[in-house]
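Exercise: predict the structure of this protein bound to adenosine-5'-diphosphate.
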Amino acid sequence: MKNLKEYTKYLRENRLRDFSVYYIDEVKRLEIPLVNLIIKKGIIKSLTDESSITMTMESMGRFLVSLEDGTMIENTRKSLKLWEEGKIPMPGIGKNDILPSDLILIYAAQKKAVFHFLPDFSNDSRESISIIQAIEEFFTNAENEAVQMLFKIQKETELQLSESDSIKQRLLAIAEASSDFIGFADAKDQHIMYINQLGRKMTGIGKDEDVTKYKIADVHPEWTNKMFRNEIIPVAIKNGLWEGECAFIDRKGRETPVSMILMAHKNAEGELEYFSTISRDIREQKFAEQELKSVNSFLDSVLENIPNMVFVKDAYDLRFVRFNKAGEKLLGHSKKELLGKNDYDFFPKEQADFFTEKDNAVLNQNDIVDVPEEPIETKNGQRWLHTKKIPILSPAGRPRYLLGISEDITDIRRAKLDLEQKTKELERSNSELEQFAYVASHDLQEPLRTISSYVQLLASRYKDKLDKDANEFIEFAIDGSKRMRLLINSLLEYSRVNRIKPFEWIEITDVLKEIQVDMKEQIKEAGVNIKHNGLPKIYGDTVLIGQLFQNLIGNAIKFRSDNNPEIKISGKRKNGEYIFSVEDNGIGINKEYSEKIFIIFQRLNSREKYPGTGIGLSICKKIVERHGGKIWVESEPGKGSKFYFTIKATT
Ligand code: ADP
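Solution:
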């Protein structure tokens, strides 16, 4: 059975040129950095020219021999040793230029070339497999050994570097990895000596581009260059350092705002040598500042235009740090006068004490405090405020500021007080009036009774004994006293409406039934038809509600038309109240009187045709109001009237 030795012999003796060319192609394909470097340094011109092929054939011949006699690993070791000792005479290629990956790739190319010609040598698969296994073993061992040796050599080399060299290298590595712009420039002609990776990006200078052809002015916008001339360089030279904001510009003219530190470096003789800079991209910071500015100006304009007084006090000493326009107007002091001062600078001590106490409560409880009413002395006199005080916390959760929002409630408060006063007065005068009406009507009944009984006595005794005029006068007197009794009774009824009686559930249908029984004669005589259905139950004073319906129905009958008089009563619940209507098709009411008719003793028609006192609807109004409702009429003369009233729903 043929073996690896025979195969390598075959390659060496019959296929050395093909093998070498194939190997060269593979090396080219893999783009091995070390090989590229060798070409770049001009050690070999090209891989494919005849001399390279001859050279390669020589070295590949040696390689195949080492495979044949098993000295491959040993040879590798030897050649690496030569590298280590710097004995490989390749100008410009140092120990550290060779990478483990270079070795691995070279081995890969060799291995591929060795495998490639195997089918030409043997078509026995068992034979091929055993050769492949032997090749694999050789390469694996050689690769391991070589890489490990390389690591060892390079580590030693690194240690041999002088300390300052290694510090320099480390600094360079840090500079390259830095996320700040780092650069140096010559002080004489200001050409750039070094720019780190990030700096190249910021200035648009390519990775492999030579930075030394650029000057400081090439990488800054004009406005920064002006600063350089007028301020940055003079200050840096004078103080050794300049610090501030400026910008870089890239090849396309795009600016990057930076915060820059520029240092001027001098040599031992004190002569200026070069500048160095560390600059940080502040685009995001600028953007955030911009955002903050616009948010702030938005908030400012909101605050300024809020109609309420808004102020901010420093939590530490309760001095005003912010004040809006409404606040200035209210207090009569300008922002200038107010800012930086505290309450004791403006208000009487007692008041300042009160405010300070509330402020401290807000800050101590860390919670909103609501002061519904507080007096405040302003330049324009006393005002009343409704104030909310709110603590504003620092990120650590401690009160930093105190925000106050005050509404000037002086006018509302005055109006409220006035209203309360007026309501009280009205209630008093109403009850006085009722009292008066009651007493008057009650006390009037007695003399009235005397008058009417004596007038009646006069009539029964002297009728027909006196002359015709006297009879008529007696009639008038009797009529008058009857009418007076009616008025007095109505007045008494009116004055009794507000006497408090307990409310109860009232079935309106039942109320109407009773009324229809009581008014049976009247209804029959007038021939009116009364319709109603599905009326709701309400909560109220049964007697008064009965009286209310009776008055409205009574009026509808009294002011009926001759044609099929009809009364429709309806009611339903709507939005927290009951709304009822009593509608007739009677004589109607002129629109201009639709309010007047609810005033006591106001009537529109003659007493002869339509008897009455003019008190019915005013009693209705009082009853409805007593039940938290309103009453009104919609009517058209000649067509009929529809009286509406509401009753407040309690559930
Ligand atoms: P009275 O019925 O005693 O005159 P009211 O206070 O009940 O007093 O009514 C006041 C006035 O309103 C009546 O005189 C009448 O002119 C008018 N009025 C009331 N109800 C009706 C109605 N249903 N149709 C037309 N006019 C009415």
